[in-house]
Design a protein that fits this description.
This protein is mostly helical and 295 residues long. The protein has two domains: 148 residues, no CATH class; 132 residues, no CATH class. Helices cover 62% and strands 2% of the residues. It is built from eleven helices and two strands; from the N terminus they run βαααβαααααααα. A two-stranded antiparallel ribbon has the order 1-2. α2 packs across α5, α7 packs across α8 and α7 packs across α10. It is globular, with a radius of gyration of 21 Å. The N terminus is likely disordered.
Length: 295
């Protein structure tokens, strides 16, 4: 393909960098007020405690967003099949910069910064944080496609294949009772004959199990009494049982159920996570609920 492509491995890294950035509470409140105005955060979202207030936030917000726009633009790389290297590269990079700005990618990056800075202690906010990361990736892919980039289709499509496999598992095994609802199995029109379902589920489980085990053991290492006892899932089936409930609760947003039914299923999931923590003597960690597999 001609043109330039976006390396999604680098994009994932940039997204993670945004949620790891640290700013003082006065600047965080600038971001919060800006995101409320854009209706990206709820109007009742609480600001951080701060001894000072910044009256003009526009410049601060724009500067932070521009840092990430420049990093994203820098992930573009020239395809050697391009005939006119310099002109094509400049033109398509210009298009890409314009499109990611029009899609408010920078604002969603700010949202990740806010969540990380405030600790994101509630289950709903942790869930929304993961959804925001997915949304950013989708918006960037959409912008890249419009600008005739080669978005490394195989990498991006693999994320969709994993999504299909999770949906199939949740439906086939009636996780959280989702089999009775009309959850869409294949929203991205994945070519099902091309999917090695069992191998992909196995890979997702191993990647996420390793992440969860390392996070728990990192916390245990801070406590001398707990450090001697390393946590490990009993086997892949235990890890899959734990993870599949997370997939199911994320898909709850897509099915036609009442708010009371949804809350009941979320409550059921939260209780099972709590029981798992108690059973394994785990200090609760916010990011244990979410999918951390990377292609």
């Amino acid at each position: 393909m001609n043109g330039i492509f976006i390396t999604f491995i680098f994009i994932i890294s940039i997204i993670n960098q945004s949620s790891a950035q640290s700013y003082d509470n006065a600047k965080i409140n600038c971001f919060i007020r800006h995101l409320k105005e854009k209706k990206i955060l709820a109007s009742d979202f609480d600001e951080a405690p701060s001894i000072r207030t910044i009256k003009r936030c526009d410049k601060i917000v724009d500067n932070v967003k521009n840092v990430y726009y420049e990093k994203l633009k820098a992930t573009t790389a020239l395809d050697l099949g391009t005939l006119n290297f310099e002109n094509s590269l400049d033109k398509e990079r210009g298009c890409f910069s314009k499109e990611i700005k029009s899609r408010e990618v920078g604002d969603h990056m700010l949202k990740l910064i806010v969540y990380k800075s405030l600790g994101v202690i509630s289950y709903n906010l942790v869930l929304d944080q993961e959804k925001t990361k997915t949304l950013i990736t989708e918006l960037i892919a959409d912008a890249a496609s419009l600008c005739t980039f080669n978005t490394i289709y195989e990498t991006f499509n693999y994320e969709r294949i994993k999504n299909f496999c999770k949906r199939k598992y949740v439906i086939d095994h009636n996780v959280l009772g989702l089999k009775e609802y009309n959850l869409t199995l294949n929203p991205f029109n994945v070519k099902i004959p091309d999917v090695n379902y069992e191998d992909i589920i196995s890979k997702i489980v191993k990647e996420n199990a390793n992440f969860i085990e390392s996070r728990i053991n990192a916390e245990r290492s801070k406590d001398e009494a707990s450090a001697k006892s390393l946590f490990k899932f009993t086997d892949d089936n235990e890890a899959l049982n734990f993870l599949s409930k997370n997939w199911a609760v994320i898909f709850l947003t897509e099915i036609n159920i009442t708010d009371d039914e949804r809350k009941e299923k979320e409550k059921m999931y939260a209780q099972e996570v709590l029981d798992f923590h108690k059973q394994k003597n785990i200090i609760p960690l916010n990011d244990l609920c979410c999918d951390h597999s990377r292609s």
